[in-house]
Amino acid sequence: MFLITVARAIEDGHSGPVPVPFLASELSISKVSANDMTKKLVGRGFIEYERYRGVTLKPAGTAVANRVLRRRRLWSLFLAEHLGLSPNAADTIACEFEHVTPAEVAVRLSDFLGDPTVDPEGKPIPAAGSRSQGAPTELTLSEVEVGQRSRVARIAGDSAIRSFLTDEGVVDGVELTVSAIGADLGCLIETPHGRVHLSPDIAADVIVELIAQ
């Protein structure tokens, strides 16, 4: 939600870094919690922070925000066009759906709707797999789509996380395939040593490079 809120602020015309107090207010959380989340997301490579100014999205953060916004706005359009809800009511309900919609369901929903480009309020629906221009070849395992093959470039976590991943065979250079993504963005992956379930926090610490299909 933090990344989505930054993306929507930029989309609504906010110029420059988005202030952390503004994000705290929008998310109805304390400034302390917003600052803690800022530090965590900076460490994971999703955002940049400028002291006294605020945060901006890095390519990895933009990719995650776009993926969630796409699902939210597809559902909003479906609820408005096919169930007759008002745009505001549709968006409120779609906010609940955006976190529990698997990638394959989002694809089918888009196909059903005719691959729309705007939601009922005229807001753009990000394209599937959209990333900002100049996005790096590296991304976190949290961003990889189901069925996509990737190769581990590095592990960004602490020694405990690296030790756990090493025991599971997730080390630099190993090829992985994402089998499933949970509602919490945790994922099930296939490794040369078998299947491994990674929590969203650990998945975000695995930096990978995509392998061309």
Series of H and E elements: HHHEEHHHEEHEEEHE
CATH classification, class level of the domain at 138-210: Mainly Beta
In which range does the helix fraction lie?
40-55%
Query: What fold name stands as the CATH topology of the domain at 138-210?
Result: SH3 type barrels
Shape label: globular
CATH homologous superfamily designation of the domain at 138-210:
Ferrous iron transport protein A (FeoA)
The total count of strands amounts to 8
How much strand?
15-25%
Structure classification:
alpha+beta
User: What is the multimeric organization of the chains shown?
Assistant: single chain
Number of helices: 8
pLDDT under 50 segments (min length 5)? Answer: 131-136
Mean pLDDT level: 85
> Between the first and last Cα atoms, what is the distance in angstroms?
31 Å
Q: What features would you describe in this structure?
A:
The protein contains 8 helices and 8 strands. The chain has 213 residues and is of the alpha+beta class. The strands form 2 sheets. Strands 3-8-4-5-6-7 form a 6-stranded antiparallel sheet. Strands 1-2 form a two-stranded antiparallel sheet. The longest helix is centred in the middle third of the chain and has 25 residues, at 59-83. Residues 131-136 have low confidence and may be disordered.
